[in-house]
Amino acid sequence: MIKVEKLSKTVPSGDGELRILKGIDLEIKAGQSAAIVGPSGSGKSTLLGLLAGLDSPSEGDVLLQGQSLASMSEDQRAALRARSVGFVFQSFQLLPSLTALENVMLPLELAGMEAPRQRASTLLEELELGHRQHHYPRLLSGGEQQRVAIARAFASEPAILFADEPTGNLDAKTGAHITELLFSLNRDKGTTLVLVTHEQGLADHCERVFEMYDGELSELPRQRPC
């Protein structure tokens, strides 16, 4: 499902070049859940963006569902994301001029899926947001906005869901609810789930845990059964 080969990312810096990722290899099977942990600045979010095709590596390649991102144009990568990938951002990134319902409908409409309004409304109902679907993001709490973002990411039933610090902006109670929601949707839909998180409790829910340190990735032994 996800295969990474010798992935590196280098960017210009005041001292020349900064190597953020250093020849990473990674393979995650379909339906698995995986967490990427590590200190701030270690390259976690950069790796997640590369896995989703939101950025391009300096070296190496990412294969999603057997397709090489390096061989694709930006338009082709965007089409693959629309077809197979969902992404939950830490900052939600809901469009402020659209209601919760319209935010969830948008990827369905862009993908040309049938009955986008009905599909979006049903998903918001499942996430206990039916009574809030006609509200704008500014009128929603942080937890509600995150649930809308998750609904949007799941709306087209992607094969892969990437989530960058999905509980990072939330209080403990709401974060626990979002964690339960992510993994219940993962189990019910069979979606491959890849998370970046600082929350150990969230990482513990995953089948596999990887640690990023100084641009290098290693898999950690599981501390307890999933």
How does this structure look, described?
With 226 residues, this protein is an alpha/beta fold. It has a single domain (2-11, 22-220), classed as P-loop containing nucleotide triphosphate hydrolases (Rossmann fold), CATH 3.40.50. It is built from 7 helices and 10 strands. The chain has a 6-stranded mixed β-sheet with strand order 6-7-8-3-9-10. A 4-stranded antiparallel β-sheet has the order 2-1-4-5, with helices on one face. Helix 3 crosses helix 4 (116-126) and helix 5 (142-154) packs parallel to helix 6 (172-189). The longest helix is centred in the C-terminal third of the chain and has 18 residues, at 172-189. It is globular.
Topology:
Elements: E1 2-13, E2 16-28, E3 33-37, H1 44-51, E4 59-64, E5 67-68, H2 74-84, E6 85-88, H3 100-110, H4 116-126, H5 142-154, E7 160-164, H6 172-189, E8 192-196, H7 200-204, E9 208-213, E10 216-220
Number of helices: 7
In CATH, the homologous superfamily goes by the name P-loop containing nucleotide triphosphate hydrolases
Helix content: 25-40%
Uncertain spans: none
Summarize the structure.
By secondary structure, the chain is of the alpha/beta class. The protein is 34% helix and 28% strand.
Feature tags:
single chain; 226 residues; Rossmann fold; six-stranded mixed beta sheet; four-stranded antiparallel beta sheet; globular
